[in-house]
UniProtKB/TrEMBL annotation:
Transmembrane segments: none annotated. InterPro entries: DegV, DegV_C, DegV_domain_contain, DhaL_dom, DhaL_dom_sf, FakA-like_C, FakA-like_M. SMART domains: Dak1_2, Dak2. PANTHER family: DEGV DOMAIN-CONTAINING PROTEIN DR_1986-RELATED, FATTY ACID-BINDING PROTEIN TM_1468. GO terms for molecular function: glycerone kinase activity; lipid binding. It comes from the Bacteria. One of its GO terms (biological process) is glycerol metabolic process. Residues 21-211 form the DhaL domain. It comes from Paludibacter propionicigenes (strain DSM 17365 / JCM 13257 / WB4). The keyword Magnesium does not apply. This is DegV family protein.
Length: 608
């Protein structure tokens, strides 16, 4: 703090100087204002989609910077760090546009430890083309216009004024006027009577900066890098058609094509296209109906290092079309048909799948059919990573804004940290919103997890209360089972589940293992046979014994690119249980990568 005080005194003596620490704390001050006003910004969000999350997205973008960087005395170093952190953490259309402005500012800043007003004005003005270049269809009367009007004013004063503080104070009048005019420049805003939400966010940001440079009170800035924000949502939203379901974002590196080619590809896939950053690292934003196809086309052109996809239809249902007052959450290892997931409005959070340096979201940007093709053709064996706590915090804060309670059921905690991260996020949001959130470890996965989620959904549909549902599902966990018939051991060997020497020996003997889960949520070898036909016979023989003791509530047949084997398995189960399966589905890639192509599995849930 003393070092910055010394720099502040120097700044007060030379009012044209802007150093790195002044820039850092000014950014934090502006960012704090966005964090405090995010609910208000959400409320007025009607363009380009009335999903009421512009404030949330700007807040998340700001938090990415505050959590990542530290003060530095050099202006150039600080602006570079801010731009990089913003681009990495940008969220939503407005967040990506704001990050692109900062990227342009960074690129157009001279390599100096401090700059004067003239240099600052040049960098601000020269950053504007970066924004317009990034957007496939720039629309005036939005955040773009307000940032440009502000930059034009700053640039117009560079030769006449020599007091940075005074220039910033005067710029507020220009910002307020430009913001007010957005209501009349854009038809969608004129209908609502609101100003543009993204533009409002930028004005709030600059106001925070002006307030700081007037007082230069660093102690008033509460910067806590360990505190992650909860996303604030609002009930005040108008229902509108959503032509493209998925708000899709990614960070792309090492482009082998021009960014204009990426922009063209995104435009062919949907709307609201932004390509921010440079050809070495860029962040994309697009609303599309088919993120899987989009990323299959992109993976040959770039390295995909991060992806985020929000289901705007599910978000809209949460706000207007909730069928019940208890929300249901699971992860993408839950193998249940999309028809049932949509019917019961289940919120599914995807795990991460990585092929080398390329990152995908399970069942969102990569579906089983693409996954199994890549499993055969890609040089590197895939790996998975857990869902982080922030992803659950974002979801739970959104759901808690609209539902009375939340129940989440996840894959076994023995396989992934997903369950623990969900627990931590649930505890935090339950406390903040004073609403019950229960996270349940299924001690299982795949179809068994799907059956538990389905049963919870039907309890909710029947109108049972929160405590009763939680109690019953916890009891049902012990009655859920899965048996996986592995046809080819090479995938388990590649994935490290079976050592290479043991795999070679098993291969010589032609062994086909049957994998199951024990009562503690750990995988176990249920048995070995000499063919998949024999292993399935062993599975059905065991299920028949189980049926002699308890009745089967329902079952799911799963397969890894083996529909014929799945059909035979379902026929066997019909004979044993007298009922058809809930679903016959391609097993989750997260599970299938180890079971391997050709695997067939049976999941069942017994009645207590």
């Amino acid at each position: 703090m003393p070092a910055f005080t010394e720099k502040t005194r120097k700044y007060e003596q030379d009012k044209t100087a802007i150093n790195g620490k002044l820039l850092y704390y000014a950014f934090v001050a502006g960012g704090n204002q966005i964090l405090q006003h995010q609910a208000e910004i959400n409320r007025i969000n009607v363009f380009p989609v009335s999903d009421k999350d512009t404030g949330t997205n700007l807040a998340a973008t700001i938090r990415s910077v505050v959590d990542t960087i530290k003060p530095h005395k050099s202006y150039k170093t600080t602006v570079n760090n801010i731009a990089e952190a913003a681009l990495t953490g940008a969220r939503g259309n407005s967040g990506v546009i704001f990050a692109q402005f900062l990227h342009g500012l960074s690129c157009e800043t001279l390599n100096k430890p401090h700059i004067n007003i003239t240099e600052f004005a040049h960098s601000v003005s020269n950053a504007i083309p970066y924004i317009y270049k990034a957007i496939s269809n720039p629309v005036e009367g939005t955040m773009l216009t307000v940032i440009r009007d502000w930059a034009d004013f700053i640039n117009s004063k560079k030769e006449r004024l020599h007091d940075f503080k005074q220039v910033m104070i005067e710029s507020l009048q220009v910002l307020e006027k430009s913001l007010a005019e957005t209501t009349f420049k854009l038809k969608e805003l004129g209908k609502s009577g609101f100003v543009d939400a993204g533009a409002k966010g930028f004005v709030v940001f600059i106001k925070g900066i002006v307030e700081f440079i007037q007082k230069l009170n660093i102690r008033s800035l509460k910067v806590d890098a360990q505190t992650s924000i909860s996303l604030v949502h609002t009930e005040n939203i108008s229902e509108s058609d959503i032509p493209f379901r998925y708000c899709t974002e990614a960070i792309l590196k090492n482009l082998t094509v021009k960014d204009t080619d990426v922009q063209r590809l995104l435009s062919d896939s949907g709307n609201s296209v932004v390509v921010a950053g440079s050809e070495s690292t860029c962040r994309i934003h697009v609303h599309t109906n088919n993120p899987t196809q989009l990323f299959q086309e992109l993976k040959g052109m770039v390295t995909i290092t991060f992806q985020k996809v929000d289901d705007m239809v599910r978000q809209q249902e949460t706000i207007f079309k909730r069928k019940w007052n208890i929300a249901l959450v699971t992860d993408s290892t839950c193998d249940l048909s999309q028809e049932l997931i949509d019917k019961y409005q289940v919120n599914v959070v995807p795990l991460n799948i990585n092929f080398g340096n390329n990152h995908f979201l399970d069942k969102v940007t990569i579906q089983p059919e693409q996954f199994y093709d890549m499993l055969e053709t890609e040089a590197e064996f895939p790996n998975t990573s857990q869902i982080n706590e922030q992803a659950f915090t974002n979801l739970y804060s959104h759901l808690a804004s609209h539902y009375d309670a939340i129940i989440a059921i996840h894959l076994t905690g023995k396989f992934s940290g997903t369950y623990n991260n969900s627990v931590k996020a649930g505890q935090r949001i339950a406390k903040e919103f004073n609403k019950p959130i229960q996270v349940i470890d299924s001690n299982n996965l795949s179809g068994s997890l799907g059956l538990l989620v389905l049963k919870a959904a039907q309890y909710i549909e029947a109108g049972e209360n929160f405590d009763s549902i939680v109690s019953k599902i916890k009891a049902d966990v012990a009655q859920s089972f899965i048996f996986v018939s592995v046809r080819d051991l090479k995938y388990m060997i590649k994935g490290g589940r079976v050592s290479k020497p043991k795999g070679v020996i098993a291969g010589l003997f032609g062994l086909n293992p049957v994998i199951s889960m024990d009562e503690n949520g750990k995988s176990m070898l249920f048995g070995n046979t000499f063919s998949q036909k024999s292993s399935l016979k062993k599975i059905f023989s065991h299920i028949e014994k189980m049926c002699g003791q308890k009745t089967v509530w329902n079952y799911i047949i799963l397969h890894a690119h083996n529909p014929e084997g799945a059909a035979e398995a379902e026929e066997q189960m019909k004979q044993l249980t007298g009922k058809s399966s809930v679903s016959v589905v391609d097993i989750s890639p997260v599970i299938g990568m180890h079971a391997g192509i050709g695997a067939v599995a049976v999941s069942l849930l017994l009645n207590n």
